[in-house]
């Protein structure tokens, strides 16, 4: 029994008559890397050797600052896109302050749909979670709280498409940038 538990902790799961290393294949490793450099740290997967732990420390020392730069750039590009659209609306319709408010509202609603309201539908389908559980996972992940009570791709009774973890990893990066903009906007309102 101890051997089975250790194998499971190492990422080996049984699927039918075959063994899957789903946690440490390319998609699983990419997802682990994203959860490490975004500081989400679900706690469901971690290095188990001294060399692996040292590598993880070095990876995080360089990866976390680089990720912060990347998130800042993504957020900046999103903000530039909203500002560009607002300027175009002002030019075309001769709206002054209305265009900026309309674009900010549009960006907020689009982000809510893309990052918090629609992903739970995917999680319901792929993970078997309720919509509320998927929404909870979405917010806990994008806010980098990462409790680890819900983690995608971990149910050994389910078969996941090869693209799933990669798409979710990209969703995390863009969603964190969007949520950072929303939080920055809320801070500006409070100040």
TrEMBL record:
Supply one GO BP term. stabilization of membrane potential
Q: What is the source species?
A: Climacteris rufus
Instruction: Give the similarity note.
Output: Belongs to the two pore domain potassium channel (TC 1.A.1.8) family.
Q: Which domain of life is it from?
A: Eukaryota
Q: Which UniProt keywords apply?
A: Ion channel, Ion transport, Membrane, Potassium, Transmembrane, Transmembrane helix, Transport
The Potassium channel domain extends over 20-78, 114-190
Q: How does it sit in the membrane?
A: Multi-pass membrane protein
Recorded GO cellular component terms are: plasma membrane
| One term of GO molecular function | outward rectifier potassium channel activity
Q: Which residues cross the membrane?
A: 50-70, 101-123, 135-153, 168-190
- Protein name as catalogued: KCNKH protein
Instruction: Give the subcellular location.
Output: Membrane
